[in-house]
Write a structure and sequence with these properties.
The longest helix is centred in the last third of the chain and has 19 residues, at 212-230. The two termini are 25 Å apart. α5 (178-187) links the parallel β7 (165-170) and β8. The chain is of the alpha/beta class and 232 residues long. α3 crosses α4. It is globular. It has helices at 50-61, 85-91, 100-115, 128-139, 178-187, 212-230, and strands at 13-18, 24-30, 37-42, 64-69, 121-126, 144-148, 165-170, 193-196. The relative contact order is 0.13. It has one domain (5-230): 3-Layer(aba) Sandwich (Rossmann fold), CATH 3.40.50.1820.
């Protein structure tokens, strides 16, 4: 279920979507009246919080029908978190283990929803979501993918995306060693990989690791990539 095009808004709204296994989940949506394409925004471990909702609205302002599925609804519906040390510790419980199958189903359902509107669709994910975006490109459930600091890509780097894929990493990321980035580059030499003088979470302006110059450059590269691969 979603709003009609007549009621879609750049302001954003919550909707319900349903995965192939029958799981119903919340999703946050924003769109211009005539979108250029679709974007599945895949969250960090902090849920579809205000930052992720702001990213959805920013993509809508850039011309895309953007939706962020609440991929943790399978474990804890409505979960959202900030970035304090205690909140980071609490949010990490979703990593033990990661429900990759459930995430893949929710991302695919969101992409299918956008495909049904006649749009080409990219997944753009951050941290955990960056790894999920890579997996979506491998599975082919989206038409393109952009990963920001996906820390779980290196272990599956032998799996080649069948859709165009762009990767962003920070050289000073304390959670993703450059050796992992080098592994990805060696196993996937055709993939564009950009490395920034920044740490983990450099795109998030609500975190201490925010690095505005790197975030701006990555945004420009991301939107250029979307224009190239989501155009009709």
């Amino acid at each position: 279920m979603t709003a009609s095009l007549a009621t879609l808004s750049l302001d954003g709204q919550w909707i319900k979507l349903t995965a192939a296994d029958g799981h119903a989940f919340d999703a946050y949506e924003a769109s211009p009246a005539v979108p250029l394409g679709g974007v599945v925004v895949i969250q960090e471990i902090f849920g579809v919080n205000e930052h992720i909702r702001a990213v959805v609205r920013r993509f809508a302002e850039a011309g895309y029908h953007a939706i962020a599925p609440a991929i943790f609804d399978r474990k804890e519906p409505g979960f959202q978190s900030g970035y304090s040390a205690d909140e980071v510790v609490s949010a990490r419980r979703f990593l033990h283990p990661v429900n990759w199958e459930g995430i893949a189903q929710d991302v695919a359902a969101t992409a299918q929803h956008l495909h049904a509107a006649g749009l080409k669709v990219a997944a753009v994910g951050f941290c955990l979501g960056g790894s999920a975006a890579y997996r979506a490109a491998v599975a082919g459930s989206v038409d393109a993918a952009v990963s920001y600091y996906g820390g779980q890509i290196a272990p599956i780097a032998e799996q080649t995306p069948i859709r165009p894929t762009l990767l962003h990493f920070g050289r000073e990321d304390h959670t993703i060693p450059m050796a992992d980035v080098e592994t990805i580059a060696a196993r996937q030499p055709a993939l564009p990989i950009h490395i920034y003088e920044a740490g983990h979470g450099f795109n998030c302006d609500a975190r201490g690791s925010y690095e505005p110059a790197s975030a701006a450059l990555a945004w420009d590269r991301t939107t250029d990539f979307l224009k190239a691969h989501l155009s009709a």
